[in-house]
Specification:
heterodimer, A: D-Maltodextrin-Binding Protein, domain 2, five-stranded mixed sheet, globular, B: mainly alpha, MetI-like fold, about 0% strand, flat
Chain lengths: ~425, ~300
């Protein structure tokens, strides 16, 4: 009795390992001779779920000989599931992917279809996709993904609060700190907030800060796992800056998630929040604060790029074994018409030329769109830019820093060792 | 005739083996093979992406010894075990004794159901529920503390590095106590009533009866329940994974969560396997000690 109980618990534990090893057959055509396409995305939440359900229906009506099976799980679970699927033969035919190291990891499985030929063959379609957004999906001159959504990160601020307290939009980091002090003096216990339980939120902060204070050449070397060292003193300075910023976030920040932080901003409780442009519509729907945004300010004496915008596209990837009809579906998903509908429904900006206009977005989003497309350079999200093991040291370190459990020097030491392990 | 008898005899010898076969097969496929494979995997460096494995010998185990997070996780697991034994085993035994007392005969069935309900609720639902309770802004716990004038004790339970693991453990206690209580109730019901009657006549009070009759009589169940809670504490995954994901920092990390993160989040399947091996060794040691100490297997 005890033994079986003990074993059954063990079995549960081991079954998670087993799950990684299973593999199955493939199917491309079902019983009635229809071609089946497996479509996997990461939006079980509205409005995107309905949007894609609608689009799939529309496509199947236009192409009666194609049947599309759709599956979806949310963000973090999606990252994990795709990792498991890509190691088996059950990789979906078409699925969503982030750029840079996330994409690179998937590509290294050798199960992703190179899309260079597809892009060259149909110039009419491919020329509409903004060129600068392909970078994160291109490795050794081979493009493995089609960018679809574009994004960027900036400080959103409550216009009314800034006016009341006579605060100018900060143009340097010191001015930002001065503004935070002023807001705190004006009665805002936490003039800035973030949901630090979401480790990616920490990585967004750190990514941008490093972008400002560390020499771009050093960053490029450290973002490559072959040459990474993380010895630049800029990193300690960056972590100290992050620590300083968390001191304005109040005690709750380590216990809430980003969504809660966003709701606090939308309710007018907190005047400043570092957010993605993709969230503009959500803020508008959650409350009625009038907001503007400013880029993460320049850091005096920082060796980095003072105007680089943090943000990376997300797009679609196709499995090597996908039926050829998948390409047609991919073109449908990234057509100007679909993209315009998408932005109208969801509010997130897209990388298709002519699909973001005054007709389908509000002025705030249009302003953001121009900022993204005109940025001097774009930096990928930190957790996508570096090896995940190193990113994890910084992300968990950021949490520990906010709770006062560690120091910037210790985090960096750990990061250096982890970077060494990855070589 | 003799031939026939011999065949029957041989067939009879086969029958027990045939009966064992299905369970052996299942055990082999789902437990022993994965166990061996896991041990084998821990000598390689690979990720879920990589088509090949690279042999690295004992380096994963070397890394394991110097890993601070493993230490934190192990300590958290041990805290989990100690607190669970105190609250689940000891407290559940008291609870079961009270419920089986004559005084409570009327309402005992209802209370048993109430205590057992949390066991039947999915752990994900419970974790989401406790997320609301621990919420620093509108959580029930902090609101309650403020209501009774203990507002200065209110902290962001899951966001504070010193309280997070205890907040997670507390939830487990609430959930599992009903199950252990139920097991004790069954054991107590098997105690012959004559013992209590005799004790009554001798003038022994309720407390004396508890120590001199109940505890010795449920000794067997006590060991089983301790084994369940301790091995369960060493394997705990769902609660910390859903509530805190090991954070903030690594303050509420447990071995299973760390194993999962290494394997599926950080792409170190080999190292994840080494952590899994460690978990197996730890639980196996605990199980062996307890079986040895309790001397079960021998029917009394």
């Amino acid at each position: 009795m005890k033994k079986t109980l003990c074993f059954s618990i063990l079995l549960l534990l081991l079954s998670t390992l087993l799950a990684a090893c299973n593999s199955g057959g493939e199917q491309s055509a079902n019983a009635d001779g229809k071609v089946e396409i497996d479509f996997f995305h990461r939006w079980p939440n509205e409005p995107r779920k309905s949007f894609y359900d609608e689009k799939i229906k529309e496509y199947m009506e236009q192409n009666p000989d194609v049947h599309i099976n759709v599956d979806y799980v949310l963000n973090d679970a999606y990252k994990e599931k795709v990792r498991v699927l890509v190691s088996s033969d059950e990789l979906p035919d078409i699925f969503t992917a982030w750029s840079d190291s996330f994409a690179e990891n998937l590509v290294s499985s050798e199960r992703i279809m190179p899309l260079n030929d597809v892009i060259q063959e149909d110039e009419e379609w491919s020329s509409k996709i903004i060129d600068s957004q392909f970078g994160g999906f291109t490795f050794d001159d081979t493009t493995y993904g089609i960018p679809f959504t574009v994004d960027g990160k900036a400080f959103f601020y409550n216009k009314a609060v800034f006016e009341e307290n006579n605060i100018e939009i900060p143009t340097t980091y010191d001015e930002l700190i001065a503004a935070l002090d002023k807001l705190q003096a004006a009665g805002f216990e936490q003039p800035l907030v973030e949901g630090l339980t979401n480790t990616w939120a920490i990585s967004h902060y750190l990514g941008t800060i490093f972008e400002r204070v560390v020499d771009p050449a050093v960053l490029e070397k450290d973002y490559n796992s072959e040459t990474a060292e993380f010895t630049d003193p800029g990193y300690v300075q960056g972590l100290e800056m992050f620590n300083e910023l968390t001191s304005y976030m109040g005690e709750v920040s380590t216990a809430i998630d980003h969504e809660a932080a966003r709701n606090m901003f939308a309710a007018g409780e907190v005047p400043i929040l570092y957010m993605q442009f993709a969230e503009i519509k959500m803020v508008e729907e959650a409350g009625d604060v009038e907001f503007g945004f400013f880029d993460f300010p320049e850091v005096e004496g920082g060796k980095g790029d003072p105007t680089a915008l943090t943000g990376a596209p997300e797009g679609w990837m196709v499995s090597k074994n996908a039926p050829e009809e998948t390409i047609d579906f991919l073109k449908f998903l990234t057509s100007e018409e679909t993209a315009a509908d998408f932005t109208k429904t969801d509010g997130q900006l897209n990388a298709i030329e002519g699909a973001v206009t005054e007709e389908n977005v509000n002025p705030a989003s249009l302003e953001a769109y121009e900022l993204i497309t005109n940025a001097s350079s774009t930096a990928p999200w930190f957790d996508n830019a570096v090896n995940i093991n190193v990113a994890d040291v910084f992300m968990r370190g950021g949490q520990s820093l906010a709770t006062g459990q560690t120091t910037p020097e210790d985090i960096l030491k750990e990061a250096q060792q982890e970077a060494e392990n990855q070589k | 005739m003799k031939e026939g008898a011999r065949m029957i005899a041989r067939r009879n010898r086969m029958i027990p083996a045939l009966f064992i076969l299905p369970s052996l097969l299942f055990l082999g496929i789902f437990i022993y093979i994965p166990l061996v494979q896991n041990f084998y995997n821990s000598f390689f460096d690979f990720s879920v992406f990589s088509p090949t494995k690279e042999y690295v010998g004992f380096s994963a185990f070397q890394q394991l010894l110097g890993d601070k997070v493993v230490m934190t996780a192990l300590i958290n697991n041990i805290k989990y075990a100690i607190i669970s034994v105190i609250f689940q085993v000891a407290f559940a035994l008291i609870l079961a004794t009270i419920l089986e007392d004559k005084l409570f005969r009327r309402i005992a069935p209802m209370l048993r159901v109430i205590y057992f309900i949390p066991v039947m609720i999915s752990i994900s639902v419970i974790a989401l529920l406790f997320n609301f309770i621990y919420n620093p802004q509108m959580g029930l716990l902090n609101s309650f503390l403020e209501l009774v004038g203990l507002g200065n004790l209110a902290v962001p339970w899951l966001g504070n590095a010193t309280t997070s693991i205890y907040a997670v453990i507390a939830m487990s206690q609430w959930q599992s106590i009903g199950f252990i209580t139920m097991l004790f109730i069954v054991a107590i019901q098997k105690i012959p009533k004559e013992l209590y009657e005799a004790a009554n006549i001798d003038g022994a009070g309720k407390i004396r009866q508890f120590f001199s009759i109940t505890i010795p009589q449920v000794k067997e169940a006590l060991f089983v329940n301790m084994l369940i809670t301790i091995t369960g504490s060493m394997l705990v995954f769902n609660e910390p994974y859903i509530l805190t994901n090991g954070g903030p920092g690594t303050s509420s990390m447990t071995l299973s969560v760390y194993m999962y993160q290494q394997g599926f989040f950080k792409d170190n399947m080999g190292y994840g396997s080494a952590v899994a091996t460690l978990i197996f060794v730890v639980t196996a040691i605990f199980a062996l000690i307890q079986i040895k100490v309790s001397g079960t297997g021998k029917d009394e």
